[in-house]
């Protein structure tokens, strides 16, 4: 016999938030998060408060990067992807760079300064509805648990828009500003965590 539920008296279902290594089947969900966070060519200065992605990718590209890097993390609530960190070792970034048409000045700087094992968080995003709930921090913990090194470096937009959300986030996770790099019409801040310099 069919069961009828009184929806009003049903308890709210518990929804668990988890973080884990991404799989190729997450690519669509990751691209949906990225799409929401991308700013267009008009580059509104107020986007610095909320944070923004400059280069959201298509699902196929995220799938390819997941296949190439063991350092791609997602946050999931129920069956929905609500956040991601796309990171890779510098050696993987170098090998992917041709197909990525990656900004070469940043790549050159990284190759000069850092060992091939250094981890480069390339993109991080959390759905606007889920921000400031510690999900970015949880994903960073998950990422660190997957890494065989403590050394990290990334770049963050400083101008024409200063990505205050990203700067606030990365510095809260222990990254420190090192120098600025000019890449096309963007001034980018280079930020490091636990980088060991040989004397
Ligand atoms: C950056 C981003 C991933 C942070 O995710 P999040 O889940 O909201 O981060 P958390 O809740 O873990 O925040 C950890 C700490 O980061 C800092 N932080 C997070 N958002 C911030 C903001 N908008 N402004 C200033 N500091 C911020 C705070 O110190 C925060 O701790 P608190 O909430 O106790 O004050 C999220 O804002 C985002 O998706 N932004 C859009 C995309 C983006 O800018 N990506 C970076 C460039 S690739």
Instruction: Tell me what the CATH architecture is.
Output: 3-Layer(aba) Sandwich
Taking pLDDT < 50 over at least 5 consecutive residues as the criterion, the unreliable ranges are 1-6
Instruction: Report the β-strand fraction as a percent range.
Output: 25-35%
CATH domain fold name: Aminopeptidase
Q: What is the CATH top level name?
A: Alpha Beta
How many domains is the backbone divided into?
A: 1
Kindly state the mean pLDDT as a whole number? 91
Give the strand order, joined by hyphens, for the main sheet: 1-2-3-4
Rounded to an integer, what's the Rg over CA atoms? 18 Å
Provide the CATH superfamily: Gcn5-related N-acetyltransferase (GNAT)
Helix content: 25-40%
Count of alpha and pi helical runs: 7
Tell me, what's the shape? globular
**How many strands, what sense, and barrel or not for the largest sheet?**
4 strands, antiparallel
Bound molecules: coenzyme A
SS class: alpha+beta
Q: Please provide the count of β strands.
A: 7
End-to-end span in angstroms?
77 Å
- The succession of helices and strands, N to C, reads EHHHEEHHEHEHEE
């Amino acid at each position: 016999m069919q069961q009828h539920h009184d929806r009003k008296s049903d308890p709210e279902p518990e929804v668990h938030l988890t973080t884990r290594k991404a799989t190729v089947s997450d690519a669509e969900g990751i691209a949906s998060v990225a799409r929401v966070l991308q700013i267009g060519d008009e580059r509104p200065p107020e986007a610095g408060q909320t944070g923004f992605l400059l280069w959201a990718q298509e699902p196929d590209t995220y799938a390819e990067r997941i296949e190439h890097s063991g350092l791609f993390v997602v946050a999931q609530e129920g069956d929905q992807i609500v956040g991601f960190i796309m990171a890779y070792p510098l050696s993987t970034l170098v090998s992917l760079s041709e197909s990525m048409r990656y900004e070469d000045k940043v790549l050159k700087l990284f190759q000069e300064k850092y060992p091939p094992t250094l981890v480069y968080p390339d993109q991080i995003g959390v759905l606007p509805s889920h921000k400031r709930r510690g999900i970015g921090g949880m994903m960073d913990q998950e990422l660190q648990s997957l890494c065989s090194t403590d050394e990290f470096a990334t770049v963050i937009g400083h101008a024409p828009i200063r990505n205050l959300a990203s700067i606030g986030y990365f510095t809260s996770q222990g990254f420190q500003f090192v120098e600025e790099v000019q890449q096309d019409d963007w001034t980018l801040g280079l930020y490091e965590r636990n980088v060991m310099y040989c004397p």
